[in-house]
Design brief:
- By secondary structure, this protein is an alpha+beta fold.
- The protein folds into three domains: about 180 residues, FAD/NAD(P)-binding domain, CATH 3.50.50; about 120 residues, no CATH class; about 100 residues, Polyamine Oxidase, Chain A, domain 2.
- The chain is about 30% helix and about 25% strand.
- The chain is built from 15 helices and 27 strands.
- The strands form nine sheets. The chain has a five-stranded parallel β-sheet with strand order 14-4-3-18-27, with helices on one face. A five-stranded antiparallel β-sheet has the order 22-23-24-21-25.
- A hairpin with a 3-residue loop joins strand 22 and strand 23.
- The longest helix has 17 residues.
- It is globular.
Amino acid sequence: MYAHDLSGAPHWATPGQRAKRITVVGAGLAGLTAAYELERLGHSVQVLEARLTLGGRVRTHVFSDSPNGPLAELGAMRIPASHHRTMRWIDVLGLSDRVRQFRTLFSDDASYLESPAGHLRVRDASPALVKAFREGLPPGSDYRAETVLCAAWLSASVNAVAPGSFRQSLQTGLNVELLELLEDIDVRPFIVDGANERIDLNRFFANNPGFARTSRLSNFFDDVVIETSSALFRLDGGMDQIARRLAERVRGPIHRGRRVVGLHAQPDGVLIEMRHGLATVSRHCDYVLCTVPFSVLRGMRFSGMGDDKTAVIHDMQYWPATKIAVHCQEAFWERDGISGGGSFTGGLVRQTYYPPVESDPRLGAALLASYTIGPDADTLGRVPPDRRAAAVLDELQAIHPELGRPGMVLDVVSQAWGEDPTSMGAAAVRWSKDPAAAEEERILAARSDRTLFFAGEHCSSHPAWIEGAIESGVAAAQEIDAYVPAPRRVLAAGYRKVPGDSV
């Protein structure tokens, strides 16, 4: 039996190696990647997915019956250029011609930024940001004007990216810490001239990616660098194309609507409990790869795992995220001078993104009205669902009054990942952990228990990103392929091993 690796070359299973039968729990990108890789290595795979859709937390919504209608990404929406595994899979899946730049926060001078003086255009915000920043410094502080300018914009980026209580905890001593980090850096090459000078954060981070590595902000600023980078990509036609193309390449069955509610590691395999109608049925499987988030796994019945594995399942932190997307009659923001990117709107809304109009303009345009994470998503989640969208649209009209015009809003859709029973959070986060603790958690999360294996962004070095899902899926497939069962004892006559069932 053979399949093809990512280069297109045939791969033969190791001579004499017995093909394994593996059940993959979860048809997100980690599960689909692992299923494809396992088949490529000569094994037999079936996939169980609780949802009726594939892709996990990659979810593209099209606002039209037409496949060419405006779309919004309710899950993953961007790919950093540095995520080479993801970019390689995009090539292999034949999606290279769909890659487009993703324009992010602060990338458009005409977009808006919440400041102490109210909502200002990015190009006009420097005086208000610098004034507020200086007011927060200890008396007698004396720093170069360009250093203060850069620190003020870095502080603004922290405010835009960091959620809720985490954002508040950073404020203690943050301004001075930023200034000290910038003391030995010449920031003048990153100043953008204009009516009001500002710092080009994209170029600053590109040239100084490790400037905060010795700081308590190290892990967090890794994400700030990505969030404000110009080296971000998206897919024309939707990110869910990755999941659909992967699923097409998996030969084994992908069973949808099969919710696993129990996992039990046993000496001779894994017992799966699965909801079937109103009943729960059990199936014995030789090998199982669990890719569901630990936030979901801890709500299942599970046994046979060590104490440290059980602890990391219960202790891993997940943050919610909520997205509210609007189908608009037209891309009114373009008449306001905004060609793309995102605004930091603050309040309940937090971040607003303006997707490019790549579909038939007669079908309208999509606006990602609100993107919130962590405690900010919880705050928005406490607003009753029937009022949530109205609250966001009312608040957003402060900068976009066009949303209040009759007929402008054609449809609204929202996705609250923290409330979704098949995700119970948007992603695992390790911002509060030092690098050593974060790596220890990753190793424990990915560690197998006999023939029960684990994958998912939470098991990777890139939590919250597609890169992490792919990294962990490939690693788990290789681990399963290399696994050699311990020699079995000779059992009494009449013993019959329970076969791995086809669910």
